[in-house]
Structure formats: C-alpha cells, structure tokens
Amino acid sequence: MNPELIEKVTRLVVEKLQSQQTSDVKGQESSAGVKFWQHTSNPSTQPSRMAVEVIKAGKEDTDSLIKIKSYQNTNALKMTSTVKASHDKNENYSKKAGIDHPADPVELEALKSKTPARIGVGRAGTRPKTDTWLKFRFDHAAAVDAVYGDVNDELINSLGLFKVNTMVNEKEVYIRRPDYGRKLSEEAKKIILAKCQKGPAVQIILSDGLSSSAIEENAEDVYLSLQQSLKSLGLDMGTPFYIEKGRVAVMDEVGELLKPKVVVLLIGERPGLVSAESLSAYLCYEPRKGTIEADRMVISNIHKGGIPPAEAGAYLGTVIQKVLKYEASGVSLVKKQG
C-alpha cells in the first residue's frame, strides 16, 4: 500500500480512538467500543464505515492519495457494465448452486449472511455439488500452501528487517515440535544481541508462524501503520526483525535478551478453509521465560475479510499505550483497569 495513505489512515484512526477515550473520561459511556468490521454482513454490498470515512477524508485533502484498492470489495463502489454482468451471472449461479427449493429461502439467506462457513450449499445425491467440492479443494490447497510456504525475502528486506531462525530447520519438524519454534537458535541470539537496541519501550517482531500467506498479504500494511501510530504517540521503538518458523512464546526469549517494556509479535495464524491469510498481533508487557498465556493479549483476524490491516496497526498503537500506562497486559491489565 502507498505509505502516504497508510499514514493518513493511521492518523485518522488514532484521532478517532483518542477522541473516544476523551469522551469516556468525561462520562460519556460507549458500550460498543471500537468497531472495525462487520463480520455478519456481505463485504461486497456493505463496505465498512471506517473505509468510507477514510476515502471521504482523503478526497478532502488530496485526490492523488486515493488510488489504492480498498480492503473491502470495490466492485460494490464502481463496476463496468461487463464486470457487473459477469458478477450478476456468478451471483445467480451461486444461488442455484445452493439448496434446491429450500423450505424457507428468507431464513436460509439470513443464516448464510451470519457466517462464512459452508452452510446451505446443497447436495447432489449423497455427494457435495461440484462447485462446492471444487471450492473446498481450492481452500484446502490454499491452507496447505500457507503452512508449507516461505515468506519472500524481498518483502522482509523492503521492510528493513533482518532474519533469524528458531531451533527448527524443517517445516515438518516445526509442525511436530511446537516447542522448538518457541526457542531461538544460539546463532539467532548472537545476531539479535549484536544488531538490536537494548531496553526499548516497544519491540516489534514478525514471524511466519503457521501462515506465510498472512505475512505476505498483511504484514506490510500492519507494520507501517503501527510504526506511524507509535511515532504519533511518541513511543520509542526498538530494532524490528523477522523470525522464521516461530511460535508465539518465542517473544519470551526476545524479552529475556533485549528487556523491552512491550513486545509485539505479528504472526501468521493457523489457516482455515475460510481464510488462509489471517494475521494475529500478540502483545505482552515485559515477557520473560515462564510467562503465562493469561498475561498475553491478542488482536486476531487481521486480513482483508476481517480487521483491515492498516486500521489494526493504528489500533495496536493505542493498545500499547494503555499497556505501558498500567504496566500490565492480558488479565492483569483488565484487573488494573477495574
């Protein structure tokens, strides 16, 4: 994504969150909190409110920035006659491919609109219909590719990151031995100590985890937006780097080595048949060996069909600010907040 657009999105989200926090302090209750996406609606027909606000704000400032694809399906905003005809044809075919003559079509559509899961797909005799089966095979193949694939070195270099490894050398070992993915290799420890700033307020790490696709599709936007968010909040950031074949608890070893206040780990989630490119952001205050899971925080489901990456990066900055303020994360943070 265009860095200028990411900066604009980040600034708007941070300002929105800060204004909301100010309102809360003054006694104006907000039960809904910050809403980034509507998972029960069809993204092709209902683009997110935040995305629309960003586009409108951008047009007021300059037309040159709004040339980047939206995270929502832009076909709903603008379609050529040819594309629209093809879309309608596919939509009609999709409807025909479901349950034949449902008893309650309205209720069926209502149920399907509330989940991306495979419901109401119909059968052909005792077997799935051809289009359903092919889509299943396609999604399964995408999930396998996400697990066994590797992140392109060009992306890592473009973000200015250096790469280190855990104790895992092969993907099969990584899958069978999660404990190896939680420990840095001795060589990795030496490189990190040599290249990284000691004792920063925030230490950012990226790792492919169980989905290389998640990093390739979302990491750049989340990372650049998070950087901008931390900068706007005046928070010190350490030297970021990439860990190949890492697990969540590898952040504990990084905490032991560099002694940061907060560690943020952007890592690929285990892929499913709905999305193979979902990213998670784990946060922990002063992680060390033996840190329990209750002390970690996570913002998950970061991808084009979930939380938009640029918005997630901006929001992460405000969460980190709160973690530093209360000197706690996870359940401990909830208790301190009261």
Automatic annotation (TrEMBL):
Pathway: Amine and polyamine degradation; ethanolamine degradation. It is found in: Bacterial microcompartment. It catalyses: ethanolamine = acetaldehyde + NH4(+). Gene3D superfamilies: Ethanolamine ammonia-lyase light chain (EutC) (3.40.50.11240), Ethanolamine ammonia-lyase light chain (EutC), N-terminal domain (1.10.30.40). Residues 18-31, 38-48 have a biased composition (Polar residues). Adenosylcob(III)alamin binds at V248, E269. HAMAP family: EutC (MF_00601). Catalyzes the deamination of various vicinal amino-alcohols to oxo compounds. Allows this organism to utilize ethanolamine as the sole source of nitrogen and carbon in the presence of external vitamin B12. The basic unit is a heterodimer which dimerizes to form tetramers. The heterotetramers trimerize; 6 large subunits form a core ring with 6 small subunits projecting outwards. This is Ethanolamine ammonia-lyase small subunit. It comes from Cytobacillus oceanisediminis.
